[in-house]
């Protein structure tokens, strides 16, 4: 062990003439540990929120959606779909027909977004039909006529209207039929065959799926779709690939991608991460002030010892390094304790999901944790750097002690 580090460690372990110095040193270690642990947990939460929101969004939606600019739907879509399936980087494609409807059962009703799909193809671009918790989507795959068309709801939508698997629900479309009395909304009875739960409130509270032919019949739009959805091999190049698909589709089409659709959400999460880091890092700054106070008082207590060391030939620079090493040991101890505590609590929170959230507010129903090694390196670096700055003044003061003056009255 180097001389300076040996003396610094001895000073930390030695009994104090002033007990308050030991108390302040313990508080400094605890403060650094609390700040580091808080930062690790906070960054794990923001990483978890971003990861879960992104994974659920990508699991529930396609990477790229292609629509008509005029908004009048896509006719003669089959040859277009087969041609675009061959586009570079496209791994899957599926047609869909969207429409806003009112869904009711008895006196209870709720607004929803119904999507007519071809189930086998829809499952290649979205995971919603694969997250069915009650019932199943087998009836959606039937192409023959049925007494009541099948429909699948999100769990929150089913709860809103009080419907269960096997119940009959009424779906009313605002795109009604023209009669001598004016436009009359069109309605159709459906049988609820499945309830999915994605954990993402936006979809669980409003989405419903039915067969494409049943949706076309409901909206009085035979052989029409409103969107072609695509999965691509690199989701982070979705914008670039979407432009290629749009160009291949020809004039009158527009492609949107998951990045543009959720840009504001992920920008808000990034800003929240930065603000959280700055605010909680103040805890480390407060702990660094405690280190400054503890070392300053220690220098005052050890003035005679420092003078004796310097009279034996210890250089001022070595004295400076003694107190720099002492501050570093305090900071390093607190940082290690904080990292262990922060990662342990983050692992427990991520494994057991014991903190529940309101899905209506946060879009997800539990608080996710996703600690990263890189965050630990960043937090440890900031903690050690701030603490090292706090040791500059007391270590400089110790190096300026004059042995003759300090020992004059001893």
From TrEMBL:
Domain ABC3 transporter permease C-terminal per the UniProt entry, residue ranges: 278-401
Top-level taxon in the UniProt lineage: Bacteria
Subcellular location(s) of the protein: Cell membrane
Entry keyword Metal-binding: no
Gene Ontology CC: plasma membrane protein complex
Keyword tags: Cell membrane, Lipoprotein, Membrane, Transmembrane, Transmembrane helix
Matches recorded under PANTHER family: LIPOPROTEIN-RELEASING SYSTEM TRANSMEMBRANE PROTEIN LOLE (PTHR30489)
Protein name as catalogued: Lipoprotein-releasing system permease protein
Taxonomic placement: Bacteria, Pseudomonadati, Acidobacteriota, Terriglobia, Terriglobales
């Amino acid at each position: 062990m180097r001389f300076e580090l040996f003396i610094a460690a001895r000073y930390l372990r030695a009994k104090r003439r002033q007990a308050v110095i030991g108390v302040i040193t313990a508080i400094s270690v605890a403060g650094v540990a609390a700040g580091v642990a808080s930062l690790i947990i906070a960054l794990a939460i923001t990483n978890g929120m971003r990861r879960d929101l992104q994974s659920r969004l990508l699991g529930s939606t396609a990477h790229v959606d292609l629509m008509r600019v005029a908004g009048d739907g896509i006719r003669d879509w089959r040859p277009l779909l087969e041609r675009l399936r061959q586009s570079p980087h496209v791994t899957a494609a599926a047609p869909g027909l969207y429409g806003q409807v009112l869904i009711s059962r008895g006196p209870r009703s709720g607004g929803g977004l119904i999507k007519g799909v071809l189930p086998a193809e829809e499952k290649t671009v979205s995971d919603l039909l694969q997250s069915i918790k009650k019932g199943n989507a087998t009836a959606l795959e039937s192409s023959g006529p049925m007494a009541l068309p099948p429909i699948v709801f999100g769990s929150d939508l089913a709860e809103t209207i009080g419907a269960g698997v096997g119940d009959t629900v009424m779906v009313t479309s605002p795109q009604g039929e023209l009669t001598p009395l004016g436009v009359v909304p069109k309605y159709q009875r459906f049988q609820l065959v499945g309830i999915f739960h994605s954990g993402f409130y936006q979809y669980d509270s409003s989405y419903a799926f039915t067969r494409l032919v049943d949706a076309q019949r409901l909206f009085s739009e035979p052989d029409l779709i409103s969107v072609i959805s695509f999965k691509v091999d690199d989701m982070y190049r979705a914008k670039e690939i979407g432009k290629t698909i749009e160009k291949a589709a020809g004039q009158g089409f527009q492609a949107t991608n998951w990045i543009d659709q959720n840009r504001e959400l992920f920008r808000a999460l990034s800003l929240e991460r930065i603000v959280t880091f700055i605010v909680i890092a103040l805890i480390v700054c407060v702990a660094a002030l405690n280190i400054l106070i503890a070392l300053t008082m220690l220098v005052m207590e050890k003035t005679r010892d420092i003078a004796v060391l310097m009279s034996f030939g210890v250089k001022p620079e070595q004295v400076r390094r003694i107190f720099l090493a002492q501050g570093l040991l305090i900071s390093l101890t607190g940082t290690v304790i904080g990292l262990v505590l922060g990662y342990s609590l983050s692992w427990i929170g991520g494994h057991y999901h014991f903190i529940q959230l309101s899905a209506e507010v946060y879009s997800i129903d539990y608080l996710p944790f996703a600690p990263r090694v890189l965050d630990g390196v960043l937090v440890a670096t900031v903690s050690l750097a701030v603490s090292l700055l706090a040791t500059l003044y007391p270590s400089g003061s110790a190096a300026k002690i004059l042995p003759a003056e300090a020992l004059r009255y001893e």
